[in-house]
Design brief:
Structural class: mainly alpha
Order of helices and strands: HEEHHHHHHHH
CATH architecture of the domain at 113-178: Orthogonal Bundle
Helix content: 55-70%
Distance between the termini: 21 Å
CATH superfamily of the domain at 113-178: Homeodomain-like
Number of helices: 9
CATH class of the domain at 113-178: Mainly Alpha
Largest sheet: 2 strands, antiparallel
Radius of gyration: 18 Å
Length: about 190
C-alpha cells in the first residue's frame, strides 16, 4: 500500500468483511479481532480484485515496509531528515541496515539507494512542475548537499537538466507505485 487510495480500498474491504481495524497504514493493517481462515481468504480475493496483495511472507512484508518508509519520507513528509538515511531506516524498522540492503537488492534487483534516488527524482519533477519552489529551495527540501548535486543526479536519471525539464510541460510523471519497479513501463 503506497497511497491514500490503497488505504481506502483496504478499509472498505475490511468493513465489508465485518472486521474492525485499529490501524490501516502504508503496508500494514492491525485488526481488533482474530481473523478466520475463511475471512483471510475472502480478504485476499477482495484485495486482489482491487489490485492489491495480501502478503504473508515475512521477507516480502519487510521489503514492503522499506518501500513504505521511503515513500513516506520522500513524498509525504515535510520534515527534512538530517541523519544518514541508513541509520533512519535501521531505527525505523529495527533491523541492521546491511541486512535490509542485502534483502532489498536480492528481492528487488536494485539497491535501496537507487530506489530512493528514483523516488527523489520523481518528487523533484513534481516540485518543479508545481513551480512553488526554486531549484535551490528544492535542493534543500530534498536534502541535497548542493544544487549542483541535485542537477547532476537529475540529469543522470532523466537525461535532462532540471531547467530543461521545467520547459517540457508534457513530460509525464510516473505513478508512485511504479517508481523503482523494474517491470514498470517508462
Amino acid at each position: 500500500m503506497v497511497s491514500a487510495r490503497c488505504k481506502s480500498a483496504v478499509k472498505e474491504e475490511l468493513k465489508k468483511l465485518g472486521l474492525h481495524f485499529i490501524v490501516v497504514d502504508l503496508g500494514e493493517v492491525e485488526i481488533m479481532e482474530t481473523i478466520s481462515l475463511d475471512q483471510r481468504d475472502r480478504l485476499k480475493v477482495a484485495l486482489l480484485n482491487a489490485g492489491l496483495e495480501l502478503m504473508d511472507d515475512k521477507r516480502a512484508v519487510l521489503i514492503e515496509r522499506i518501500k513504505n518508509v521511503i515513500v513516506e519520507m520522500v513524498h509525504h513528509s515535510e520534515e527534512v531528515i538530517k541523519i544518514n538515511f541508513s541509520v533512519f531506516l535501521s531505527e525505523k524498522l529495527n533491523h541492521d541496515y546491511t541486512y535490509l540492503a542485502n534483502l532489498f537488492s536480492e528481492v528487488q534487483g536494485t539497491t535501496i539507494e537507487q530506489f530512493i534516488i528514483s523516488h527523489k527524482i520523481e518528487r523533484i519533477k513534481e516540485l518543479i512542475i508545481y513551480g512553488e519552489l526554486n531549484i535551490t529551495e528544492i535542493a534543500w527540501k530534498m536534502n541535497y548537499s548542493s544544487v549542483a548535486h541535485l542537477s547532476n543526479q537529475f540529469k543522470k536519471v532523466t537525461g535532462l537538466s532540471p531547467s530543461h525539464f521545467k520547459q517540457l510541460k508534457d513530460k509525464r510523471r510516473s505513478p508512485i507505485e511504479d517508481i523503482g519497479n523494474l517491470d514498470a513501463i517508462k
